[in-house]
TrEMBL record:
It holds the Pfam family MFS_2. InterPro entries: MFS_trans_sf, TMEM180. It is a multi-pass membrane protein. GO terms for cellular component: membrane. The keyword Transmembrane helix applies. The lineage of its organism: Eukaryota, Metazoa, Chordata, Craniata, Vertebrata. It comes from Gadus morhua (Atlantic cod). Keywords: Membrane, Transmembrane, Transmembrane helix. CDD domains: MFS_MFSD13A. This is Major facilitator superfamily domain containing 13A. Its main location: membrane. The chain crosses the membrane at residues 16-38, 124-142, 163-183, 189-209, 262-283, 295-318, 339-361, 468-486. It is found in: Membrane. The keyword Protein biosynthesis does not apply.
Length: 517
């Protein structure tokens, strides 16, 4: 009974609110980063094309491999513990995650500041800043996401935790509204002060919330005698025969390669990551060349802010649908909606300004909304991995890291493919600031020549048409690929319920809501 009382406490609103608030301190920085880092290095620091591509290529490698590396370093002790008595209890795992967040959160905020002041050659600063920022972001995300799988097994509890993350992420997206007021690529002084303020709030927030959660769980590690006895039973039971030998990284990779649902999910998520970052990287470009001649600056600011905040608010409704219909079905509907809206916009054409505004905003809202639901699916994959491989403890952070290994390249492909498409189809090279010769747009030819340092003006017909086709064709292709992969994913419905039943049955009865790693 003592253990059951402990397990109930993490589900009360205070703990859910504290857990969700950690998403706020990531969101206020990361949204600003996504929106402005490409523009800063290309338009302000004048990085050359070769350095940009080399930096993105190195970043691709680091961005892909740091997730499984950090996940393995975090969870290898759990996979390689040969003695049942040496298992780590669930509250101890939670404390380990919180200690990592309290260290890496402030460092993540500090690394964010490195982008906005020119302190080295653009090529070197671009590479160093990207790798440092992503390294600390990875450490924060892995531990925060792993807590979702560590704290709860039931779909209802995980949905509640995700609900609070979405709520606080929506609040964090207000930084995008404010950033538009400070952003001026001709003079970054005000924007730099704004970024320092954001970083200070984020660093203090990580430190304070991690400390509060740690105190809460430490107090629960020192209960009465009955509770202490119950906590000793938080290890894995014997409903499934446990592995007797430590698991090496090679064995783990072989096991994962046979995990079909993981492979199909990773394929779908690779496209999703690409599309999300494509939208973020080129949103200012679409505003400038598709809408700037027809809407005011304040309307553009409002559209920008809504596109960042609405996905989190809309996700609150999506989570309600998930409780009723299941995560799999809701994600499938979102893919179909993305496809339908994109085809409708393609047929309508680029001249319907109000439809274009709605589509630009809704495309980002529904795409980002899908991303917010995927952690629930990964948590289910953690359960399936535990059951299929009969693990003693579930390696939550490692599985999140392996998903990132396969899907993070989409983050690098987005600006690379996007800038290439822009140059090829519109004749506009954002690096050389002049139209590339002989680039085709639709059935026309991009204008040739032009002075060095001057590209096509906003609203130029070939450029505008090319941006429009980029805007609508990319989501159509992404949606078709995702629907194909998602149709092969089978971890839903009765199969998912069976996995959760086995997952809970593999543990002692009190572990109905919180699971050990």
């Amino acid at each position: 009974m003592g253990a059951r009382r402990w397990l109930y406490r993490p589900a009360v609103p205070n703990t859910a609110v504290l857990y969700g608030s950690l998403a706020l301190f990531v969101s206020i920085l990361h949204n600003v980063f996504l929106l402005y880092y490409v523009e800063t290095f290309v338009s302000v620091y004048k990085i050359d094309k070769v350095s940009f591509w080399v930096g993105e290529a190195v970043f691709l490698i680091w961005n892909s491999f740091n997730d499984p590396l950090f996940g393995w370093l975090s969870d290898r002790a759990f996979l390689s513990s040969p003695q049942v008595g040496s298992q780590i209890t669930s509250p101890e795992v939670v404390l380990k995650r919180l200690a990592a967040l309290s260290r890496n959160g402030p460092l993540f905020a500090l690394s964010f500041l490195g982008f906005w002041v020119a302190w080295a050659r653009p090529s070197l600063q671009f590479l160093v800043c990207l790798c440092l920022y992503d390294g600390f972001l990875t450490a924060v995300d892995l531990n925060h996401n792993a807590l979702l799988a560590d704290l709860a097994v039931s779909a209802a509890d995980r949905t509640r935790l995700n609900f609070h993350c979405s709520l606080f992420s929506a609040v964090g997206s207000l930084s995008v509204f404010l950033s538009y007021c400070f952003w001026d690529k001709e003079d970054l002084r005000s924007f730099r002060l704004f970024c320092v303020a954001l970083a200070a709030v984020s660093a203090l927030g990580f430190w304070a919330v991690s400390r509060l959660l740690r105190q809460r769980f430490e107090s629960q590690l020192r209960p009465g005698t009955n509770d202490a006895a119950g906590l000793k039973e938080l290890g894995i039971g014997h409903a499934l025969p446990p592995q007797e030998q430590p698991v090496t990284i090679g064995q783990y990779l072989r096991q994962l390669s046979k995990h079909k649902n993981f492979m199909w999910f990773a394929s779908m998520n690779l496209v999703q990551v690409f599309h999300c970052h494509f939208n973020s990287n080129f949103f200012p470009l679409f505003l400038e060349h598709l809408l700037s001649d027809n809407i005011s600056a304040s309307a553009g600011s409002l559209l920008l802010g809504v596109s960042y905040i609405a996905p989190h608010l809309n996700n609150l409704y999506f989570l309600t649908l998930c409780r009723r219909y299941g995560v799999y079905q809701v994600i499938r509907w979102l893919f179909m909606l993305k496809l339908g809206l994109s085809v409708a916009m393609l047929l309508a054409g680029a001249d319907h300004i109000y439809l274009l505004c709605i589509f630009i905003a809704s495309n980002r809202v529904f795409t980002e909304g899908t991303c917010k639901l995927l952690n629930l699916v990964i948590s289910d994959l953690v359960d399936e991995d535990f059951v299929l491989n009969r693990r003693r403890q579930a390696a939550s952070a490692l599985l999140f890291g392996m998903v990132a290994l396969v899907t993070k390249p989409g983050q690098t492909f987005a600006p690379l493919i996007g800038t290439w498409l822009l140059c090829f189809y519109t004749g506009y090279d954002i690096f050389e600031r002049r139209p590339a010769q002989h680039a085709l747009v639709g059935v026309g030819v991009a204008p040739e020549g032009g002075p060095q340092g001057a590209g096509p003006a906003p609203g130029t017909a070939p450029l505008r048409l090319g941006c429009f086709y980029m805007l609508v064709v990319v989501p159509i292709i992404c949606a078709l690929l995702q629907l194909t992969a998602w149709s092969r994913f089978t971890l839903h419905g009765r199969k998912l319920q069976g996995i959760k039943t086995q997952r809970q049955g593999a543990q002692h009865a009190p572990l109905a809501d919180v699971k050990a790693i």
